[in-house]
Amino acid sequence: MTAPQDARSVLRRFQIAGQLTEFAPHGGGHINDSYRAVYQDAGGIDRYLLQRINHAVFKQPAALMQNIARVTTHLTAKSSDPQRTLTLIPACDGTWVHHDDAGNWWRVYRFIENAHSCEAAQSPAQAFEAAKCMGHFQRQLADLPPPRLHDTIPDFHHTPKRHAALCAAIEADVLNRAAAVKSEIDFALRHEPTSRLLLEADLPERVTHNDTKINNVLLDDGTGEGVCLVDLDTVMPGLVVYDFGDMVRTTTSSAEEDERDLTKVTMRLPMFAALLNGYLETSAEFLTNAERNMLVCSGKVITLEMGLRFLTDYLVGDTYYKTHRPGQNLDRCRTQFHLVQSLEDHEAQMHQIMNSIMTGSGS
After folding, report:
1. With contact defined as beta carbons under 8 Å apart, do 83 and 186 qualify?
2. What percent of the chain is helix, strand and coil (3-state, nearest 5)?
3. Which of 22, 235, 240, 296 has minimal Cβ neighbours within 10 Å of its Cβ?
4. Stated pTM of the model
5. What is the CATH number of domain 124-358?
6. Which part of the chain has CATH 3.90.1200.10?
7. Is residue 43 very low, low, confident or very high in pLDDT (cuts 50, 70, 90)?
């Protein structure tokens, strides 16, 4: 991670008034380095979020920032309360990003006050609000003017290609780890047909977030209502079921992403019902029948995809996701695959919930 003192100096490259009074690392994301900065001037206190974009992961930072600038500008223009939307702070040169002499790319957001994220949904009410917020996000961007957004990570949710990447990592086995994870590899290989379900459904391309884990939704500290989606690095053209599926993955699970006790990993039907109700409340007017029909299976596809990615990263030496202990990516893989199995075991009940919501007979 970038040294805090080095990051602190970057703030001078952005249009921020006042005196810096506090500066500290913020959050625990897998990819970027983030810092919270507090400034004070005669007008009061303002807080900002400084981030260093991981250009090893996001190989086109300029294109990524063009996407984010277009999306946040569009969302702010439609918002009744711009203070509750994600807002970029311009750099001193008038652009939205600072590219330093060391090759790092930096951005600053205005910190959204009186809001929080959670690593796991604590109640169906939280799940409802998160999904409602996600549907609102997609609906607001449905009329984003051309041109098409950049693909910041090409084939990000192309699950068959994630499966192929895993097969290549198994074949190479550069760290001789494959033999010890045979059961995980066998699970992945058996589920190759599942990896193709969403892409074979012929769904329309839309502007989507593509990384809607529950901690990328801010909730109001007082009311618990959804405020906005954050972490827009992967906003690009995609399928709405990618977003819904990832929210199923991170919200219905009863355990942390790297839980070692797999008996704690199971999907929770009340959470799924809440997600469907919240999402359909704000998205029903633009969803096609084909998109609705894929909502139930989207969770297992995206959960499988994440399991494939974690297992691949483990086999190649933990080069993509940040890890804090040996074997963490393998633990992450195992929780994902266990959740896939739980989602499959409950699929008939999930379809019943979907049918009851669509017919208006409750959840």
Report:
1. no
2. 50, 15, 35
3. 22
4. 0.92
5. 3.90.1200.10
6. 124-358
7. confident
